[in-house]
């Protein structure tokens, strides 16, 4: 699961849209993310795009920043200020250089934000804090300077963390970074949409139940420990998108999907530095032009500067769920009325890049997507809590979540179904593109896994629970089999 982001800028910044004619286009090509941003004349200096997955944006109060100038991916691209993962290829010198670069970058940001550009020693302040899973950084200039403040937060929702707001300067406004006009979600489905039709006709079927009940803890464990590097003989120490092992993980997934009889398995490379997406397709027998997609992400993230990133929950759990779905298709010789796609994405942790590439491609080809669902963090159960299945509170298609909630209650009676504010994962790429999409998550309420984005995200630890993962997998499998129109 990628972190959600809030940027705080003062209220004046998001005043009425600025006419594009007077705007300046700035093209940024940092190491990973090409982007163009529009600024009003005179405000160009206030933007700084900085190294790797770090970028900082700010503008003084006098500048009106075009609200839609921030591309949707922007909200994710600046998440990691001081958390870049040490890559396997990094030497100690690389790490030291990166740290210094970050410090220079932050200093440079502060210096450049003043009237005086000649490299003066800047008494800027950085505050860092943490509240539950909300981590944040505030860069603040002294009071006699023009107002430039940036809050780079992760997993902070204004409504979830009211106390965070109390800690901010009085004239700071918190905005969800997803800006109007940047996305075109589809929130109301037409009456003849298959999701709406299914909602009216959904009925428990014993034949489907007996397939779903085949979800097997032993094979889930075998797959997820291989991915996390805990199984004897597993070569993996990290699945970070930019690591060499990310490519090897994708190749391993491809070989597994091929062994489960997918009609095609594609390695979809969309960015040279990243491992590819892995896309298995079962062609529909009746309505091949209609597509149902189940996704998870195979990349992961460890602790800052720690080269080990096992990602057993995030998102080894979802990846093993995908393999389980393919395995059960093979074991039962299942086929589908609609075309059924199993997608293991990379680049999720850096900003949903792999899924965005696929959603964009499908959109450009005018593909019909009946639904897309994502499973991200499916296996952690806080000691003492029941097995749970949560649907997202935001960035989803409500009618779809409502249907799948009912599917889950019908086929997985052992789980307690609810809602989570935890955010963000690959279904959003599809939701943003106007496709019906939602996600499955392990807990009703916020993230509870203490090893989230930590090198200790292992299988063999307290709270990692295969009965939780089994229930999550059953719920997702029943959902896609219902909507893809499975044939027994
Ligand atoms: C910038 O600050 C330096 C150091 O205080 C000062 O010497 C210089 O004159 C200033 N330049 C301008 C253009 O204000
Ligand atoms: C879900 O089930 C409830 C209770 O049976 C029903 O009222 C509702 O219409 C169902 N929703 C969908 C989308 O199937
Ligand atoms: C699998 O199903 C297809 C039709 O869906 C059928 O032609 C084939 O014989 C079946 N194979 C096995 C091994 O049951």
UniProtKB/TrEMBL annotation:
It comes from Podila minutissima. Residues 277-459 form the Peptidase M28 domain. GO terms for molecular function: metal ion binding; metalloexopeptidase activity. Residues 1-20 form the signal peptide. PANTHER family: METALLOPEPTIDASE M28 FAMILY MEMBER, PEPTIDASE M28 DOMAIN-CONTAINING PROTEIN. One of its GO terms (biological process) is proteolysis. Belongs to the peptidase M28 family. M28B subfamily. Its cofactor is Zn(2+). This is Peptide hydrolase. Its EC number is 3.4.-.-. It holds the Pfam family Peptidase_M28. InterPro entries: M28_fam, Peptidase_M28. Keywords: Hydrolase, Metal-binding, Protease, Signal, Zinc. SUPFAM superfamilies: Zn-dependent exopeptidases.
């Amino acid at each position: 699961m990628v972190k959600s982001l809030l940027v705080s800028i003062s209220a004046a910044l998001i005043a009425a849209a600025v006419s594009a004619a007077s705007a300046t286009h700035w093209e940024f090509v940092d190491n990973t993310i090409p982007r163009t941003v529009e600024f009003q004349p005179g405000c160009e200096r206030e933007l700084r795009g900085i190294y790797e997955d770090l970028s900082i944006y700010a503008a003084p109060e006098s500048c009106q920043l075009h609200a839609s100038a921030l591309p949707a991916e922007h909200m994710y691209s600046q998440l990691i200020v001081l958390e870049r993962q040490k890559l396997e290829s990094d030497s100690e010198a690389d790490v030291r250089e990166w740290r210094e670069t970050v410090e220079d970058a932050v200093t440079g940001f502060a210096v450049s934000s003043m009237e005086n550009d000649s490299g003066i020693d800047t008494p800027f302040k950085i505050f860092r804090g943490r509240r539950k899973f909300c981590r944040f950084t505030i860069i603040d200039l002294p009071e006699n300077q023009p107002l430039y403040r940036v809050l780079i937060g992760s997993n902070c929702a204004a409504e979830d963390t009211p106390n965070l707001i109390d800690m901010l300067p009085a004239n700071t406004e918190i905005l969800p970074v997803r800006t109007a006009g940047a996305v075109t979600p589809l929130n109301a489905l037409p009456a003849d949409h298959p999701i709406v039709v299914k909602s009216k006709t959904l009925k428990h079927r014993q034949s489907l139940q007996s397939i779903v009940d085949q979800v097997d803890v032993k094979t889930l464990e075998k797959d997820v420990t291989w991915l996390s590097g805990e199984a004897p003989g597993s070569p993996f120490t990290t699945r970070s998108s930019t690591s060499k092992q990310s490519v090897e993980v994708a190749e391993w997934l491809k070989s597994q999907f091929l062994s489960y009889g997918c009609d095609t398995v594609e390695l979809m490379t969309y960015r040279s530095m990243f491992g590819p997406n892995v896309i298995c397709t079962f062609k529909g027998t009746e309505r091949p032009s209609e597509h149902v997609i189940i996704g998870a992400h195979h990349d992961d993230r460890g602790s800052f500067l720690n080269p080990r990133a096992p990602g057993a929950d995030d998102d080894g759990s979802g990846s093993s769920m995908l393999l389980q779905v393919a395995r059960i298709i093979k074991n039962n010789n299942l086929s589908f009325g609609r075309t059924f796609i199993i997608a293991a994405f990379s680049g999720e942790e850096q900003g949903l890049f792999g899924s965005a590439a696929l959603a964009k491609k499908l959109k450009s080809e005018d593909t019909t997507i009946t639904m897309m669902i994502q499973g991200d963090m499916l296996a952690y159960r806080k000691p003492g809590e029941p097995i749970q299945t949560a649907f997202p509170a935001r960035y989803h298609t409500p009618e779809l979540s409502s249907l799948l909630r009912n599917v889950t209650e019908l086929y997985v009676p052992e789980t307690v179904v609810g809602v989570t504010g935890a955010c963000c994962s690959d279904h959003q790429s599809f939701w943003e593109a106007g496709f019906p999409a939602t996600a499955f998550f392990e807990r009703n309420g916020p993230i509870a896994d203490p090893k989230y984005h930590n090198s200790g995200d292992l299988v063999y630890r307290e709270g990692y629970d295969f009965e939780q993962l089994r229930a999550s997998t059953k719920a997702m499998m029943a959902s896609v089999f219902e909507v893809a129109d499975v044939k027994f």
